[in-house]
Design brief:
mainly alpha, 2 helices
């Protein structure tokens, strides 16, 4: 079984603060929120363009 991958991400303070508030509102960690948003973006892309 393949291990989870690590991704370092640099973001500005304003975006981080907004992401933190959004994740708290949704009851997720910041990491969980980022994964959720990425998965949503992939789902939206595949709906328009077909499976990746």
């Amino acid at each position: 079984m393949e291990k989870d991958k690590h991704l370092g991400l640099r973001i500005d303070s304003e975006t981080h603060d907004k992401l933190k508030k959004l994740s708290e509102y949704d009851g997720r960690s910041i990491n969980g929120e980022v994964l959720y948003l990425i998965r949503q973006a992939i789902k939206d892309y595949e709906k328009k363009n077909g499976k990746l």
